[in-house]
Amino acid sequence: MKFALFLGCNIPARLNQYETSTRAVLQNLGVELANIKQFNCCGYPIRNLDYKTFVLAAARNLALVEKNNLSLLSLCKCCYGSLKKADHLLREDASLRKEIDGILKKEYLEYRGEVEIKHLLSVLYHDVGIGPIKEKIEKPFSALKIATHYGCHALRPSQIVAFDDPVAPSIFDQLVEITGAESISWPKQLECCGAPLWGVNDDLSMDLTAKKLTDGKQSGADYLCAACTYCHIQFDTVQKIMLTSRGDNHSLPAVLYPQLLGLSMGIHGEILGLNMNHLPVSGIEDFFFVPELVEEGAREPVVKAIEA
Questions:
Q1: Which domains does the chain carry?
Q2: Cα–Cα distance for residue pair 221/249, rounded to 1 Å
């Protein structure tokens, strides 16, 4: 099982722990990753500014993957949605495809429309499978409550991204519960994280983030879990700014899904980049299930803090 890993722009620059934790988890699951150094931006930042340049940027990435006869694995859901959108446009518009291919030929590339575009969660759920992942769990969590954030670009437009049920998604929740944690139900689960407004209207952006964080915490979550570059930055980096500038006291630390899964697989927190998150998440290890502390006849295991 081999995929071309598409990192996008933000992960190498601002969220290196997403890459390292993903590589560690997928290596443990026997998934091979290919690195294509010629990759460029997915086109997302200019999608509403220059339509054809957006499509060209995305198409070039897809052509590079096709040239290597691989499927594409994206970590960022914005990149995932952007690449899926461009792929759809090229399949539907023959004149656009001809124009884009004319430019790609200058680099001896061609968009054939054959590449599969997948997100990390899709690969884990559909390609690796729930069963094989469960077999790799060495340190399951207990009594840990997680609020999953799906992200907008994985769910909409649903007929194009085809990630999960856009109204009642479940893939992410199931993947969280493999680790032994409980994926809680919370009213604002599918609402925007606020990231698209950051840098345009910071106050409104933080307002949207604050509403989600408050709702997650009131619903009983210990941590918020994301699997998107922009979403995690909003819940981690921007939340730290909010705590400082606004004096907000409803902190709900965010953990990336491969960090959560990696910990339950027994992978060391340093390898998973827990120390690189802006809000401390080391306390999550306090929720490891300790078999020897299960009281005889008890319905729930005892949770014991694990000393470093």
A1: 2-120 (1.20.1050.140), 138-293 (3.40.50.11810)
A2: 15
Of residues 159 and 294, which shows the higher confidence score?
159
Helix (H, G, I), strand (E, B) or coil at 121: helix
Question: Per-residue DSSP letters for 144-213?
Answer: -EEEE---STTTSSHHHH--S-SSS--HHHHHHHHTT-EE---TTTTS--SGGGTTT-HHHHHHHHHHHH
The two beta strands, 254-256 and 182-183, are: unpaired
Amino acid occupying residue 241: I
Asked whether the beta carbons of 138 and 264 are under 8 A apart, the reply is yes
Beta-carbon contacts of 90 under 8 Å, excluding residues fewer than 6 positions away, are 55, 59, 96, 97, 100, 111, 113
- Please, what sign has the CA dihedral across residues 90, 195, 274, 13? positive
d(CA 220, CA 214): 10
The rounded mean pLDDT for the chain is 93
Q: Say if residues 236 and 274 touch (Cβ distance below 8 Å).
A: no
SS3 of residue 226 by DSSP = strand
| Dist CA 304 CA 56 (whole Å) | 53
Tens of pLDDT, residue by residue over 85-126, are 999 999 999 999 999 999 999 999 999 999 999 999 999 999
- Rounded to 5 degrees, what angle do the CA atoms 56, 121, 124 make? 120
pTM given for the model: 0.93
Q: How far apart are CA 275 and CA 290, in angstroms?
A: 24
* CA distance linking residue 6 with residue 269, whole number of Å: 23
Q: According to the model, what pLDDT value does residue 247 have? A: 80
Cα angle, residue 227 at apex, residues 223 and 229 outer, rounded to 5°: 110
Instruction: List the Cα angle 297/284/289 in 5-degree steps.
Output: 20
